[in-house]
Amino acid sequence: MSRAPEDRNLVAALLVLSDRCARGERTDTSGPALVEWLAERGVVVGAFELLPDDRPRITALLRGWCDDGQFDLILTCGGTGVAPRDVTPEATTDVVDRLIPGLAELMRLRSLDQSPHAALSRAIAGVRGQTLVLNLPGSPRAALENLGAAWPAVGHAVAKIQGDPSDCGQTVDQPPDQLATTAITATTATTGPGVPLTEVTAAILAGGHSQRMGQDKALLRYGDGKLIEAIHAVLARLFREVLIVAKQPELYRFLPARAVTDALSGDGPLVGIHAALQAAKTPFVFVVGCDMPSLQPGLIRDLAGRPRNYDVVIPALQDDQFEPLHARYSTACLPEIESVYRDGPCAVPAFFDRVQTLIVSRTELEARDPELQSFRNVNTPEDIAGLEN
Question: What is the arithmetic mean of pLDDT over 50-71?
């Protein structure tokens, strides 16, 4: 079986539309059914909201979710018929940049097998930015039927929307039911299954005093707050927990995050990575620096969700230019880090040959972050001024 580039975990948002459910007159059963269905396929549901059939509110929420950059897929459920209050297609049209008529037609065809009333559905599918938006009908059975019909194409659609350059015409030697699962999480023996973000903790290495800046970079003013606050905000939308690794954790009490100290003596990023891995309650940690305010959620999700049999997932802008502070590490790295550190402080890559390491090439990185903004560091006052202008 050939493995497509879109084989990875997706992050979805779900919006249920119902006046009666919003007023508490009826219990929503469609939303929980969809969440369970998605979870069985390895999809992380990062947001779930229930709203009345109010076009401005629906439009505002969908636009915010799309522009936030956190979600690959947004599903709406309800409000797709011909009743006067069915406004979901109109609200979705207000938001998307491009329509994908084929997905909506495919879902209607599936429903027509069950009921002639499916011809009254006005559901649409479309794209805003790097997010796919799908309208589903309101009943649990119809919603699951429609999503199941579209699902074999969803993973590939998201990959193409987000810049995958592979050939759309490549053949896939799987039945549709299996393809839907593979489009979410790699299951081949050579790569192993992908990692859901619920099994990854984020960690910001706060560093310390910067001679060029004249103070701790993490505490520099940036926008309406501090530099580390902007970085924390991006990570907090993706991961259940964000750690701050610092020599002086008391300096970061203003953040809603657990601050931990370095466990090994000495300085350097390897010490901070070790501290994050020791403190994490999950088997994986995604580590970033405190001077990277242009992080791209899509790239972070991609790297953090790579197959679990890799202990290190490390970007490489050039063959020998690794980015250890925008990488995923497993707790299996702890004894190897301690082993190489016994001989004295060393660079992060010193232990890579002792664990399973996946090097992510510049070409792969540019598919998610074309200008490689994620790797822009703030090293001087001029750097931060340039980012704010």
Answer: 92
| Choice among 164-178, 284-298, 366-380 with the minimum mean pLDDT | 164-178
> Stretch 112-128: mean pLDDT, rounded?
87
CB 150 within 8 A of CB 166: no
Q: Which amino acid is at 166?
A: S
The interaxial angle of helices 269-279 and 334-341, nearest 10 deg, is 150
pLDDT tens-digit map of 290-323: 999 999 888 898 899 888 889 999 999 987 789 9
The SS3 of residue 289 is strand
Q: How far apart are the first and last CA of the chain?
A: 49
Tell me the pLDDT band of 219, cut-offs 50, 70 and 90: confident
DSSP state, residue 348: G
Residue 16 carries which side chain, given as an amino acid letter? Answer: V
Give the pLDDT score at 228.
92
Structure tokens at 208: 């310390």
Q: Beta strand 312-318 with 258-260: parallel, antiparallel or unpaired?
A: unpaired
Domains and CATH numbers, the chain: 11-182 (3.40.980.10), 197-388 (3.90.550.10)
Q: Which residues contact 250 (CB under 8 A, 6 or more apart)?
A: 259
Q: Give the span between the Cα atoms of 75 and 125, in whole angstroms.
A: 9
Q: What is the dihedral of CA 134, 3, 358, 166, to 10 degrees?
A: -70
8 A C-beta contact, residue 333 and residue 378:
no
Distance between CA 370 and CA 253 in Å, rounded? 35
347, amino acid identity: A
Mean pLDDT of 117-126: 91
What's the mean pLDDT when you consider all of the chain?
84
Q: For residue 148, which amino acid is it?
A: G
- Quote the CA–CA distance of 364 and 86 in Å, as a whole number: 42
